[in-house]
């Protein structure tokens, strides 16, 4: 299914995020692995943490994405989308402070808790990351254009949208038969059209089964099994 390419102004405002996108599907460790971030990152970004300042006084650091509509342990698909996007921005050299301000500005503009996962952000987010230098720290203006062109733009193209909200992610791009969809495989990566989790195929191969044997057993093509195994190897790297 191809993503919607356009959106009317404020399309996502006032719409309720589908429950399935907010269901806590992943542990923090699982979210770290899928998003490709270091251990403990998902929990810090979503729940905040406490650190001590130079004088040893405890200081509470709030979450990067405040105002989550569902509380409690674990990570939803919408949370995961934002973790991936934020992680890519961090890789581009954006500071946590700058990313935090960008996310909060997007929350105010789009009036949703997960602004990086709405279609409205895909269609007009460039204006925020490139032109809103009077509102955000100056570093955002300097890095905004390459960040959008090289990180956010390509990432958003790997998302499918339904009713203005991202509901499916193609982690290797659309040329690979791997998707992350809350409706299949409990939200873990699966082979397109089969619902077979990539980790199961990887485990079978690690146990000594050949790609051809696994493909025949699950009714998949050998190249699909190979893509799933390669993907799991990449996650483990």
Strand numbers in spatial order across the main sheet: 1-2
Main sheet? Answer: 2 strands, antiparallel
Tell me roughly what share of residues is in helical segments.
40-55%
CA-to-CA gap between the ends? 30 Å
Shape: globular
List the domain count as a whole number. Answer: 2
Strand content: 5-15%
Poorly predicted segments:
1-14, 133-139
H/E topology pattern: HHHEEHHHHEEEEHHH
- Going by helix content, strand content and strand pairing, the class is mainly alpha
| Total count of helical runs of at least 4 residues | 10
Radius of gyration: 19 Å
Q: How many E strands?
A: 6
Task: Describe this protein with a few key phrases.
mainly alpha, two-stranded antiparallel sheet, 6 strands, 237 residues, Arc Repressor Mutant, subunit A, single chain
Topology readout:
Blueprint: H1 19-22, H2 28-35, H3 41-47, E1 49-52, E2 58-61, H4 77-91, H5 96-110, H6 119-131, H7 138-156, E3 159-162, E4 165-169, E5 178-179, E6 190-191, H8 198-206, H9 211-218, H10 222-236
Antiparallel strand pairs: 1-2, 3-4, 5-6
Structure commentary:
The strands form 3 sheets. The protein has a two-stranded antiparallel ribbon with strand order 1-2. The longest helix has 19 residues, at 138-156. Helix content is 48%, strand content 9%. The protein starts with 18 loop residues before the first helix and ends with a helix. Mean pLDDT is 85; it is low at 1-14 and 133-139. It is mainly alpha-helical. Helix 5 (96-110) packs across helix 6 (119-131).
């Amino acid at each position: 299914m191809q993503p919607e390419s356009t959106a009317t102004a404020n399309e996502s405002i006032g719409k309720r995020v589908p429950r399935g996108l907010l269901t806590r599907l992943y542990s923090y460790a699982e979210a770290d692995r899928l998003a490709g971030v270091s251990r403990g990152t998902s929990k810090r970004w979503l729940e905040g943490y406490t650190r001590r300042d130079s004088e040893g006084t405890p200081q509470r650091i709030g979450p990067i994405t405040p105002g989550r509509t569902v509380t409690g342990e674990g990570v939803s698909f919408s949370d995961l989308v934002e973790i991936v996007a934020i992680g890519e921005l961090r890789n581009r050299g954006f500071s946590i402070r700058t990313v935090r301000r960008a996310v909060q500005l997007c929350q105010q503009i789009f009036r949703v808790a997960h602004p990086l996962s709405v279609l409205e952000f895909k269609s007009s987010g460039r204006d925020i990351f490139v032109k809103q230098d009077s509102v955000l720290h100056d570093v955002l203006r300097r890095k905004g254009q390459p960040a959008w062109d090289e990180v956010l733009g390509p990432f958003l193209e790997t998302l499918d949208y339904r009713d203005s909200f991202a509901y499916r992610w193609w982690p290797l791009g659309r040329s690979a038969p791997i998707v992350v969809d809350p409706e299949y495989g409990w939200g873990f990566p699966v082979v397109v059209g089969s619902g077979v989790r990539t980790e199961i195929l990887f485990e079978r191969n690690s146990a000594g089964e050949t790609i051809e044997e696994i493909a025949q057993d699950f009714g998949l093509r050998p190249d699909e099994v190979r893509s799933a195994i390669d993907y799991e190897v990449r996650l483990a790297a």
